[in-house]
Every structure is written in structure tokens, then in C-alpha cells.
Specification:
CATH superfamily of the largest domain: Thiolase/Chalcone synthase
Shape: globular
Largest sheet: 5 strands, mixed
Strand order of the largest sheet: 1-7-6-4-5
Bound molecules: coenzyme A
Order of helices and strands: EEHHEHEHEHEHEEEEHEHHHEE
């Protein structure tokens, strides 16, 4: 079977920066509460005329350049999103046209904040079997469209952004070593859009602390390795306390975990690729490193992968 890995990555987080102090003006909240409970200091809301497909496009261009691949060479586009421009057509189809990816199949994935990991796992299957060679996987979200800015339980948590990865064939000992995907629909009502975002924070918190740690351990074991082999953790950026719990399960030091939640808040499916891009730029992830990525979200769902960085 052909091994699959990441050839190139890109991200887009631009718009209006909103600090906790600014939220204090319109909500019964305060900077201290938000920082100590979540780790968030600010978030970025995309401009009114920038939609999910626009952010996906900008991150895709960066990822294609990084991978040194032309859009015409793409076989498939997978966009993970819960905030598409329209219920249909898919963001992936909008993107396929805009990129000029003439031969690419296109579909969106709805797995909330675990969507990017679900996308990577889906791409890996097509590459493993030899059906496709080059797949663009994107997490893109404009959560500001669905957040109730009068609800302090949720308004302080979320932000907008996009992150992309070009997935392709890699050497035998590189790329994705294992995946775990899961769902527990008994918690489906804990985070939902009806018509705006509604959340039972305490229940989600308990689930996330348990599941992020367990899934991280599972993918390492499935890869035939132990937690001592892990070099770097890229967790979904929902809440620093949840992320710290996962890091502690892997016995990793603080500087071995990607942290962008303070700057961008929770950007759902895009948080893992955005954090990945930043840590690669910071030189924290090197060729040959064992990287664990893990996410959870509405569904409730979760997804994790252990991968050997490089191609
Ligand atoms: N500012 C000030 N007070 C707030 C607040 C805010 N923005 N939001 C909630 N509160 C209040 C609550 O009303 C509650 O008041 P009460 O005790 O009078 O009822 C109090 O703060 C404590 O709430 P609690 O739920 O115990 O806080 P917490 O420590 O669990 O933190 C979350 C709340 C939302 C930060 C936390 O539960 C969380 O992160 N959950 C997971 C959410 C998540 O990750 N969602 C996305 C999934 S992808």
C-alpha cells in the first residue's frame, strides 16, 4: 500500500482582531475570566465580504505553493466545514472552479472541529489504494456567522480562519502511521446550531479532556510506538485547559505542544492546520519528527493521527 503524507501547508487568518477587553463592552464578561478559563486573549473575525470559501482559497494557494503543485494536478478537494457559504453547492466545488482544478472531485466533510483530521484520513484512503495521488484537504470556518454575540457562554470562544494541506504519496517510513476516528451521538445536543450556536460547555469540557488524551495515546499505540516516541502535539485549539490535559497524558513538556488559542480562539476545523503552519514556521517541527494531531467537536466526534513528518 502507498504511504500518504503532507506535501505542503498553508493558512489564512485575517480580518478584525477582537480582544477580550472589547467584548467586555457588550457582554457581561471580563478579560480575566476568559483568559483563566480558556487561555483566549483575542480572536479574528473575517470581514463581512470574506466568506468560508474565500478563506479556504487563500489557504489553498499557500499550500499548493508550499507543495510545489499546480491546481490542475489535484485529484480531489475535501473541505471540512460547519459554516459553508451555502448549504449547497459545497465549498469544495466553489474552490475547485476558483482554483482551476479541472480534474478534481470535490466534497465537503461535516465533522465539526475534528473535520480536518477526518479529511486527512479520507484523503489517506484514496492515496493508499492508488485511486488518487494529490488531494487538497482544508479546514475553513466563518464561525462569526453562527455565533450569538449576546450569549457570553459562546461568544467569547470562537474565531474565523482556514488551514490547508496538500496530501500525497510519501516514502514508506514517512507520513500517516495511524488514525482514530470516532463519534458518540448521545452528546449530539451538547453543541449544535439551532439556529445559532448553542453549547453545554461543562459536558463538552468533560468529554474533551477524556477523549483528546485517549485518542492521542491510541494512535501512538496503533503505530506500534509509545508516548516516549512523540516529538510534538498539535491539538484542536478549543481551550488551553483541555489541551494541557492531552499534553500531560503524553508526558510532553510545554514547548512540545502547538498553542495558538490565545491569538485566534477556537476556529473549529481550521484550528489544527493553522497551528501546524505556525509551528512549522517557528521551526518546532522537523523532518522525521513524530507528530500527533488530535481534535474533537460537535457530534460529538473525535479524530487523531500519528504521523512521521516529511515526504
Ligand atoms: N464570562 C463570565 N462568566 C461566564 C462566561 C463568560 N464569558 N461564560 C460563562 N460564565 C459563567 C457561567 O455562567 C457560570 O456561572 P454560574 O456558576 O453562576 O452558573 C460560571 O461562569 C462558571 O461556568 P462553568 O461552566 O463552570 O465554567 P468552566 O470552567 O466550565 O468554563 C467553558 C466554561 C465554556 C470555558 C468550558 O466549559 C469549556 O471550555 N468547555 C468546552 C467548550 C468547547 O471546547 N467547545 C468547543 C468544542 S469544539
Amino acid at each position: 500500500m502507498q504511504h500518504a503524507g503532507i506535501w505542503g501547508i498553508g493558512s489564512f487568518v485575517e480580518g478584525r482582531e477582537v480582544t477580550n477587553t472589547e467584548l467586555e463592552k457588550t457582554l457581561d464578561t471580563n478579560d480575566e475570566w476568559i483568559r483563566t478559563r480558556t487561555g483566549i486573549e483575542r480572536r479574528v473575525f473575517a470581514e463581512d465580504d470574506v466568506n468560508t470559501s474565500d478563506m479556504a482559497y487563500y489557504s489553498a494557494i499557500e499550500a499548493l505553493n508550499d507543495a510545489e503543485l499546480n491546481a490542475e494536478e489535484l485529484d480531489m478537494i475535501l473541505v471540512a466545514t460547519v459554516t459553508p457559504d451555502y448549504p449547497f453547492p459545497s465549498v469544495s466545488s466553489l474552490l475547485q472552479e476558483r482554483l482551476g482544478a479541472e480534474k478534481a472531485a470535490a466534497m465537503d466533510i461535516s465533522a465539526a472541529c475534528a473535520g480536518f483530521i477526518y479529511g486527512l484520513a479520507t484523503a489517506e484512503q484514496f492515496i493508499k489504494t492508488g485511486m488518487y495521488k494529490h488531494i487538497l484537504v482544508i479546514g475553513s470556518e466563518k464561525l462569526s456567522k453562527v455565533t450569538d454575540m449576546k450569549d457570553r457562554n459562546t461568544a467569547v470562544l470562537f474565531g474565523d480562519g482556514a488551514g490547508a494541506a496538500v496530501v500525497g504519496p510519501v516514502e514508506k517510513d514517512k507520513g500517516f502511521l495511524s488514525f482514530e476516528l470516532g463519534s458518540d451521538g448521545s452528546g449530539a445536543m451538547h453543541i449544535r446550531q439551532d439556529p445559532q450556536l448553542i453549547m453545554n460547555g461543562r459536558e463538552v469540557f468533560k468529554f474533551a479532556v477524556r477523549q483528546m488524551g485517549e485518542s492521542s495515546i491510541h494512535v501512538v499505540e496503533k503505530a506500534g510506538l509509545t508516548k516516549d516516541d512523540v516529538d510534538f502535539l498539535v491539538p484542536h485549539q478549543a481551550n488551553i485547559r483541555i489541551m494541557e490535559a492531552a499534553r500531560e497524558r503524553l508526558d510532553l513538556p510545554k514547548d512540545k505542544m502547538a498553542v495558538t488559542v490565545q491569538k485566534y480562539g477556537n476556529t473549529s476545523s481550521s484550528s489544527v492546520p493553522i497551528a501546524l503552519v505556525e509551528e512549522l514556521k517557528n521551526g518546532k517541527i522537523k523532518d522525521g519528527d513524530l507528530v500527533v494531531m488530535v481534535g474533537f467537536g460537535s457530534g460529538l466526534v473525535w479524530g487523531a493521527t500519528a504521523m512521521r513528518w516529511g515526504r
